[in-house]
Amino acid sequence: MTNSTAYNFITLDELYKQPLEIDWIIEDIIPSNSVGMIYGPSGSGKSHVILSIAAMIANGRDWFNKESKQGNVLIMAGEGLSGLSRRLRAIEKEHDLSIVQDNLHISSRAIGLDTENGYKQVEQAISELDTPPKLIFIDTLSRHLMDSEENSNDDMARFINKLEDIRLKYGCTIVLVHHTGKGGNQTARGASALKANIDFSFFVDGENKSCSFSCDKMKDADDAIPTKYFEIKAVDLGILTSKDKPITGACIVDSTKPISIKVNKQNKDELAYSCFNSDKKLWQQAYLDACTDAISAESKAKQYREGRKALIVAGKVIENQDGSFSVNDGV
Question: Is 99:55 a contact under the CB 8 Å cutoff?
């Protein structure tokens, strides 16, 4: 049975009848009936993390000592299916399991979920499944946007509202897989409305076949969750190529050793550039949200103005006659 997406009001009595205890898909990690995000730099291990989560939920197995609830998982994939096949086979072999076929479904291609036609196609595909989804991964956000701008707060707010309609209809959780900004920035790329309108988010960072998984937002629960550390392990799949060479996959395995990752701290010019918005006010707000320096909002605003000025002087950003700004792609 699906939930209504109609807009309505409930009484206080009905509100008090709602459960106070959080229902978790993965204990302390992924709440049920919510919208969240897993983000990190390219190559940090994001896809390995979500595939591991997907496989364990499909089978109702604990995810690295965290209890999970079994259910149907959908992966809206934006990358090659052969690569996903090798990684999922590696998970099966490493963890000695056979993924429940009816509990894991992968899209044949990316689609513009922000478009009317794309949204209708996704809704139709979900409705044709025998079992409603418990969890949907959108990997990656950028591959599933066609008409929307990542840097637009309005576009991202509208997109999250579309996801909320799916969440309400099926009572599922939707997780966006997203990238960080340029220049080593450790914040999610694009509009501040993206993070503001979701329920939880986790940051994945990694290099040299190691990665970390840390929480930076959990709206309705404690976000002081201990960071998890993983190694990305190569797994011989026991299959040979046509030239008798072994085919390998890879998956994450538990590691108790914190990884050492060199972090390149951005200066104000780089940070301003990474959260660029053509609108001056939205650009400044994005800078304030992204800046992690222990200084006042006024000092951050001053940094933003200095960074913006430096970008204009360097020719990286153009100030238009109407007061808006544009990125100079030729620089």
Answer: yes
In terms of residues, how long is the chain?
A: 331
3-state secondary structure of 293: coil
Tokens 């929480």 belong to residue: 215
Helix/strand/coil percentages in the chain, nearest 5: 35, 25, 40
Q: In terms of Cα–Cα distance, which of 140, 146, 81 is closest to 113?
A: 146
pLDDT digits (tens, 9 = 90+) for 178-230: 998 765 567 888 888 898 999 999 999 988 899 999 999 999 998 889 999 99
Strand-pairing partners, residue 138, are 76, 176
Contacts of 20 (CB under 8 A, 6+ apart): none
Question: Encoding tokens for residue 165?
Answer: 């309609």
The letter for the amino acid at 168 is: L
Superfamily of domain 12-255 in the CATH hierarchy? P-loop containing nucleotide triphosphate hydrolases (3.40.50.300)
Residue 153 · residue 160 · CB < 8 Å: no
List the single range of 35-49, 156-170, 305-319 with lowest mean pLDDT: 305-319
Sequential DSSP letters for 235-278:
EEEEEE-TTSPEEEEEEEEEE-SPP--------HHHHHHHT--S
Enumerate the H helices of the chain as residue ranges: 12-16, 46-59, 81-95, 116-127, 153-170, 192-196, 268-274, 280-290, 297-313
**271 within 8 A of 307, measured Cβ to Cβ:** yes
Residue 227, preceding bond cis, omega within 30 degrees? no
CA pseudo-torsion sign 230, 234, 235, 237: positive
pLDDT digits (tens, 9 = 90+) for 85-124: 999 999 999 999 999 999 999 999 999 999 999 999 999 9
Say if residues 25 and 190 touch (Cβ distance below 8 Å): no
Task: Name the residue ranges covered by the structural domains of the chain.
Answer: 12-255, 268-327
Q: Residue 8 corresponds to which tokens in the numbers above?
A: 């309505």
